[in-house]
Amino acid sequence: MIVGVPAETKSDEYRVSMLPVGVEELTRRGHTVVMQAGAGLGSGLFDHDYLKAGAELVATAKEVFDRADLIIKVKEPLEPEWPLIREGQTLFTYFHFAASQTLTEAMIQAGANCLAYETLRDQNGRLSLLTPMSEVAGRMSVQEGAKYLEKPQMGRGILLGGVPGVAPAHITVLGGGIVGANAARIAAGFQADVAILDVSLDRLRYLDDVMPANVNVLFSDRHTIQEQLKRADLVIGAVLIPGAKAPHLVHAEDLRIMKPGSVIIDVAVDQGGCVETSRPTTHKEPTFIVDEVVHYCVTNMPGAVGRTSTFALCNATLPWVLALADKGTEAAVREIEPIRHAANILGGAVTNLAVASTFDLA
Length: 362
Ligand code: NAD
Fold this sequence. Notes:
Distance between the termini: 32 Å
CATH class of the largest domain: Alpha Beta
Number of helices: 12
CATH superfamily of the largest domain: NAD(P)-binding Rossmann-like Domain
Strand order of the largest sheet: 3-2-1-4-5-6-14-15
Shape: elongated
Structural class: alpha/beta
Bound molecules: nicotinamide-adenine-dinucleotide
CATH architecture of the largest domain: 3-Layer(aba) Sandwich
Strand content: 15-25%
CATH topology of the largest domain: Rossmann fold
Largest sheet: 8 strands, mixed
Number of domains: 2
Order of helices and strands: EHEHEHEEHEHEHEHEHEEEEHHHEEH
Helix content: 25-40%
Number of strands: 15
């Protein structure tokens, strides 16, 4: 099969969908990999490494789309890419169709097979191609929080770990899933004083077992959240209710009980945010201030650490890319359940119930 890897075109997107080792694996199995020159540069991966691994380099995305049966990307195709997509061609990437009716209609029109990373459910029922990005965002949230707590960034001027004789920062993590657990572990490593809150008792029991001694595991109710907000130097928003908007756990008036110069990193902003005063920001202008509290609400946090994110994503996608290339789309969808979950549109027909009902296409 001919597998195509175009460069990403979305702004602030530095990831690439395939590592040289992926090219090596595909070519060893007899497939051809056609790659757009320079596609890996944002992640510090050079053309000569891809050439050495066996890729054929071409100058434009058009040549990639013209030749490949299977296109591997990171982000959904943008409008200039739509006319390049051929009927029957398969695209394997993040689509997030429910967020865009125009994208959904364009893919139906193109007659493409759209396999979405975000709905691939592995043998254990996990959304395993979302997990690596939640791990990145969770760990990164503490790094960003540390930065914006610095005085020149308008923060309180607090060092996360304190020093001998001076108390460390207090960090409150709202939500103890993948993002929250990763944030809490890194915060604990900084020797901060950490609290992690969740509503799932099973999850709280698990976190209590695995977290270091400087992480307190607490039930998330309104009273506890308000107590935490009074103490916190850094609040990390990491809740998710699958398929729904994030609940507002921090109300606008709560900011007044927080310390001036404290920082909120609302990772859940891509689902509307769990802080009432959050609004989406970008890496170019990541923060704004409301009632003396610094808000960081970047919707694509992993984009800033493109190299780490590329490796984390490709480690997770490669087994599925190999299965798709080896079997072909039709047989892979028929025989491999996780890939069947990934199918959102097949031959221009919507096959994912959530997408179909969002746009009344059922
Ligand atoms: P997850 O499902 O693993 O965890 C969510 C947790 O929230 C669960 O443990 C759930 O029990 C808990 N929760 C639900 N309601 C709660 C409440 N009222 N109080 C406390 N906890 C509550 O999800 P995740 O992978 O950790 O993702 C969290 C959020 O981060 C999602 O919105 C996801 O889209 C987002 N995210 C954002 C970025 C970014 O770049 N901004 C990157 C990755 C993930």
